Amino acid sequence: MSCTRAGAAFLVDAYHHLNVVPFDLRALGLLDAFVTGGGYKYCQLGEGNAFLRVPPDRRMRPVLTGWFAEFHALEEGRSGGVDGPGPRIRLRSPDRAARPVRAAGRPAP
């Protein structure tokens, strides 16, 4: 990979590739690449499902990965108001995939 020889990181946005055509990091020569993608569209995993694959030899870690990953905000004992975990997540990330489950009278997972 040219980026590796130059000492640069290589990022592949695989969002529209996943679950559409085969995606094999080894076969594609991407073992040293960062790969990002999401499961909402073609994998039908629901909203808010995404990933960043970091090559095994990298020691860097993200400083901020988004508001969904701020787990301290989801601690038990917080109020149920808009700042609480339930309503905040429901308002900002509606999960349309859970509608049939709720319609059947079962609680959403």
How would you characterize the overall build of this protein?
The chain has a 3-stranded mixed β-sheet with strand order 1-2-3, with no helix packed on it. The protein is α+β, with helices and mostly antiparallel strands and 109 residues long. It is flat and about 55 Å long. The protein is 20% helix and 11% strand. It folds into 2 domains: 61 residues, no CATH class; 43 residues, no CATH class. The chain contains 4 helices and 3 strands.
Which outline best applies? flat
Number of H- or I-type helical stretches: 4
Q: Rg, please?
A: 18 Å
Instruction: Let me know the largest β-sheet.
Output: 3 strands, mixed
Helicity range: 10-25%
Structural class: alpha+beta
Helices and strands, in N-to-C order? Answer: HEHEEHH
- Distance between the ends: 42 Å
Query: Percent of residues in beta strands?
Result: 5-15%
For the biggest β-sheet, the strand order reads 1-2-3
Total number of domains: 2
**What is the number of E strands?**
3
Task: Give the averaged pLDDT, no decimals.
Answer: 74
- Low-pLDDT stretches are 87-91
List the helices and strands and how they pair.
Layout: H1 2-6, E1 11-13, H2 25-28, E2 34-38, E3 50-53, H3 85-92, H4 99-103
Parallel strand pairs: 1-2
Antiparallel strand pairs: 2-3
Q: What's this, in brief?
A:
The chain is α+β, with helices and mostly antiparallel strands.
Features:
109 residues; 4 helices; three-stranded mixed β-sheet; 2 domains; 3 strands
